[in-house]
Every structure is written in structure tokens, then in C-alpha cells.
Amino acid sequence: MAGRKRTGARVWLRVLTAAGLILAAAAAVALGVGVYILRGIDRVKIDEENLSIYEFPEGTQADGSSGTSGGGEAERESPGSAKYGEIVNIAVFGVDTRDAASFSGGADTVMIASVDRTSGRVCLASILRDSWIHVADRGSMKLTDVYRRYGAEITIQTLNRNFKMNIADYVAVNMYRLADAVDLIGGIDLEITQAEMEQINLHAGADSPLTRPGKVRLSGAQAALYARIRQIDSDRERVRRQWAVLAAIYSRVRELPAIRYPSILRTLLGMAETSMTYSELAAYLPLLSRDITLETITIPGTAENAYGGQNYPGLEGKWVWVYDYDTAARNLHRFIYGA
């Protein structure tokens, strides 16, 4: 009987050892795949001391108020303030360049991506590129030109100062290579209007023109042209189209076999540069395997009572958006934190 027990123990020991080796091998493979994917991205260090990161005073609400009632109740956290440490805000820049290897140029797209990895909620706040914004020690200029003249670090500082944000990292995407990204995943499906189709065909020339509006599969070149359309409506509509392209890319990637993820993600990340470390980036990879809640907003919106035009005093001939940044900051905080 004792011999049987010793034999059984040895069997279980072998099973557990084998299981441990399998798990260790799987972890090594996962680590290797993660490193392979993330090594495709260019990392750029920025000085956090220069970012003017906003810190909410303890006990304040997201809109900057004290959080106390008129009746003298004790200070309390707003519904969103408890999430200040859980939600990460990242600046996203779409760089207008014709150089496939460059991340210099105007910021054709400026977004603040707010990610709650616990809930899977992702908020995208698009700041219109023609916003007339104050830059510390440099005067006022269009937001797109802040990035063009001074790069990511000063643009993040400007966003933090004007919108009272705590952005510490960024991702810059080369918009010229957007077509490559879409072609890599076999195109994307989007609903387009007659006017949008005509704009795409106008600039595409004889290169695979679209034949009908409605739900169509866009090639990379067509998707890039779609994302840049502005002539038929407005900056706000162009932002909506950019959101649609991003959502379609995400949906398309999730439809593909998981075995293709490493090579696709490595190629996609190769089209971007970022200040985030590999470990920070790796923390977001699990979002690809789950359903996320994507919410969007455009700043300025109707709540900011913005003036958009070419007749702003001293700026005749330049299209700009002029609005109150304190109001915009409060509305942005409510959107991100729910306060």
C-alpha cells in the first residue's frame, strides 16, 4: 500500500511539473510575442516636468468646484473623482505629412483618449485643429500649428494648461501611412454618402473609383481620402469620419484570425511613435480581446458657444475656432469622469 502511495505521489509530481513547464513556456511565448509586437513602435522620451500636468486639489470635483453643499455638508468626492487614478488620458496626434518615415508636420487630428482598463470604457475627445489656443510664453495660434512648430511636448503642455488635464503621454500617427494600415487588414467597411463618394473619386482619379454610395468596402487609399474630407461640410464632420475609420479598423482587426494579430499589430505600431514604455503599451493589449465601450465628443461643441470663422479681429483670412476654455475644460471633465 505504501508503495502505491509513493507511486501515485510521483505521478502527481510529474503532472504538476509538466503543467508548470507548460505554463512557463506559454508565459515565455506570450512575453516573446508582446516584445515582438511592441518593438515595432518608435519611443520618444519627453520631460514630464515640462508638461504642466494638472493635479486636482483633494476633495474637488472634476469641474474644479469644492464638492461641498450650501448646507455645510462635509466634502465628498464627485461620482467621477474616484476614477482620477483609474482613467489614463493620452494625447493622440494624426500628423499631416507626405513623408512615410516622419512625425513632423501639422496635427491634422488632435484627440484625448481616456482609457479605463477596468471597465473597458474608452472616451475620445477630439479638439478641433483650428482652435485658437494660448501657448505659454509663445502667444496664441492654431492648435495644429502648435504641434507643427513645437512638437508633442509643448502641445501636451498646451492641452494640459487650457483644459486642466493630466496628460503625460502621447501617440503620434503618420496619416500618410493610414492607407497602408487599412490595406494590411484587407480594407474597412463604411457607410458613405453620395457627396463623400464624389470627394473620394475626385481625388482618387482613376485609381479604383467607387461606383455607388452606401455600405462599401474601402481600400487604404479610399479610407485615407475619406478621413480627410472637409470641403463638403465642416471640421466637425471630418472628425466624425475619422472616428468612423478608427472604429472600422478596430472592428476589422477583431474579425481576423488571432494568429495574425502579432504581425498586424507590429506593422500598425510601426506607423506611430509614442512616449509610452513597452510595459505601459502592453497593458492595453488585452483590450483587443474584449468588447469596449467607445464614447466620443468634439471640442468645441454647442455648449462652448464657439465662434468659427475668418473674421475674428486680427485674424482676417484665417479660419479659427474661438471659445471659452474654462467652459470647455468643465465639459471635458464631465465627459471623461462623469462628474
Q: Which terms would index this structure?
A:
single chain; 339 residues; alpha/beta; 7-stranded mixed β-sheet; two-stranded antiparallel sheet; 9 helices; 13 strands
Low-pLDDT regions: 15-33, 59-82
Lateral strand order in the biggest sheet: 1-10-7-2-3-4-11
Secondary-structure element order, N to C: HEEEEEEHEHEHEHHHEHEEEH
Termini Cα gap: 68 Å
Total strand segments: 13
Alpha-beta content class: alpha/beta
How many helix segments? 9
What proportion strand? 15-25%
Average of pLDDT? 77
Residue share in helix? 25-40%
How would a textbook summarize the main sheet?
7 strands, mixed
Query: Overall 3D geometry?
Result: globular
Rg: 24 Å
Structure commentary:
This protein is α/β, with parallel strands linked by helices and 339 residues long. Helices cover 39% and strands 21% of the residues. The chain contains 9 helices and 13 strands. Helix 4 crosses helix 5 and helix 5 packs antiparallel against helix 6. About 13% of the residues have low confidence.
Question: What can be said about this structure in brief?
Answer:
This protein is of the alpha/beta class.
List the helices and strands and how they pair.
Elements lengths: L1 H37 L3 E2 L43 E10 L9 E11 L4 E7 L4 E4 L3 E4 H21 L5 E6 L3 H7 L3 E5 L1 H11 L9 E5 L1 H9 L6 H21 L5 H9 L2 E3 L3 H5 L10 E7 L7 E3 L10 E3 L2 H13 L2
Parallel strand pairs: 1-10, 2-7, 4-11
Antiparallel strand pairs: 2-3, 3-4, 5-6, 7-10, 8-9, 12-13
